[in-house]
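Q&A log
Question type: sequence-to-structure
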Amino acid sequence: MTAAAHVLILDDEPPIVRLCERLLQRAGFTTEAFVSASEALDYMRYHAIDLLLVDIRMPERSGFDVIAEVQHLQPEAAILVMTGFGTVEIAIQALKQGVDGLILKPFENTDELVQATRQALADKQRKRDAARIQVLRPLFDVTETLLSETQYDRLLALIIQAVCGHLRCEHAAFYQRDAKNGRWKALAGEGKPLPEEAASQEGLIERVAAQGAPLLVSRSGPGEAEWQMMLEQAGLESVLCAPVLRSNVRGVLYAARSAGQPGFGEADWEMFLVLARQAAVALENACLYAELRDYVRRMEESQQALIRAEKMAAAGRLTASIAHEINNPLQAVQNCVHLAARSELPAERREEYLRMAQNELDRLMNIIQRMLDFYRPGNIKPQVTEVGELIHYVLELLTPQLERRGIRVTTTISPRLPPVMAVSSQIQQVFLNLILNAYDAMPEGGELKITARRREEMVEILFQDTGPGVPPEYRERIFEPFVSTKKGGLGLGLSVSCGIIEAHGGSLDLLSEMGPGACFRVMLPAKERK
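Response status: OK
Response body:
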C-alpha cells in the first residue's frame, strides 16, 4: 500500500518541503507540497490523500488547526507531525488529536522520514481495521432483523433505518425504476433524496445500476466534477450508491451526509456494501415469500372452487335421485286439498284431509330442509366431530333412494369410536360422494357395508359395495382429476374428496383386495375425548 500512497507535505520552510518531497518520491510515494496552509486545505477539499505530513508551528495557521480540519475533510488520511520543538506538551496534544506519528526536525538521516511515513500509514491501517471489525459486529443482528421481515414495505423501512444508523448519516433512500416514465423513484427514504438530475435516465443512479458497481462521490473527491457540483448545490458532503441486484429485485441503495459533516471513508464504504448485499438478499426473500403466499392463496381458492364444483355436481345427482320423493307428498297434498274442497263433505272428514295435507307438507319441508342444511355453507374451521353422527345424517338423506333401488345398507359403528377434528360439512360431502358412487355402481340393487372403527391413532371408515368394482386400468389413477369410470362423469368427486381428507391429515384409499365390488377407506386422525 505504501508504494502507491499519496502524501501531502505542508511546511512554511521551502527547503524542508523540497527535502521531504525528494526523499519521499525517491521511496516511491507520490507527493503534493505546500508552504501555505490555506492552499493545502483547498487542495484537500477536492483531492484525496493517504497521509498528511505537517509542521506544527507555522505563521499562517497552527499545524494542530490544520490537522483538525483535515480530520473533518478526510478522516481516513493518516497524520504525521514534524516539529523542531520536541516538547512533552506537543507530544501530548498530538496524541489527543489522534495523530499517527511524530518526527523531529532536522532528520537524523534520510531514512528516518521514510520509515516514519510508512509507520504512520501502517498504524492508521491498523486503526481502520480495528474500527472496521468493531463496526461490523452489529451487522449480525441487522442480518437477522432484515431476514425475519417478510413484508416488503416494512423491510424497506428497516433497511433505511439500518443505513442511517450504521453510517451515521441523515439521508438514505432505496430507488427502483418507474415502469411508466423510466425514471428512478424513491420507494422509501429519510432526509434529502438525490437531486432530480441524479434520478434521471442518464444520472448517477442509472450509472450505478447499469454498471452494477457501487460509487462514492464526495465534494473533496473522489467523483466527477459534475457530480461534485451537484452535491454542493444540494447541500450534501458525500454520497454512496450501491446496486441491489437479485433475480427478482433491481434497485439502488443511496446514503448521504450533509455539507459540513465528514465525508464517507473506507470503513463506511465497506459497511455500506455489506448493508447493500444484506438488503438485496432480504428483499429477494420478501419477494419470494410474497410469491409463495400468493401461490398458496390461489391454491386454496382453487381447492375451494373444486370443492364447490363437486358439491354442485353431487347436488345435481342427489336432486335427480330424490325428485320423485318430493313428488309423492306433493301429489298427496293435491289429492287432500281436492277432497277437502268438496261441499258435501262432513266437517270431520274435511278436517282429516287438511290434517293429512299438513303432514305431507311437513314431510316435504323436512326433505327440502335436509338438502338445504347439507349444502348450506358452514363453518370452515375444524371442530370436534362425531363420525357416526355424520354417517347417519348422510344415510338419512339417501335411504329412500337406496331402498327403492334395492340396496341394503349395513352399518357397523364401534361404540368406542373417538371423535375427529374436522370441518363437518366437508366430511359429509366426502361420505355423500362415496355413497352415491356405490349407488351408481349397483343399478340392480346390492349391499353397501359401512364400517367405522378405531385403528391405533386413526379412525377408519370403510365403504364397501357389491358392484362390479373399479377396473384394473383405473385403479392407479382413480383419484386423479377428470378420471371417471362412469359414462359422462366429471371425474372430480374422488379427487376433491381425496383433497379434503388429506387436508384433514388423513387419507382416502381404494382397497382392491377387499372384493367383491369396490371398497374405499377413509382414515382420519382421532381426537381423544376429554
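Response note: The radius of gyration is 43 Å.
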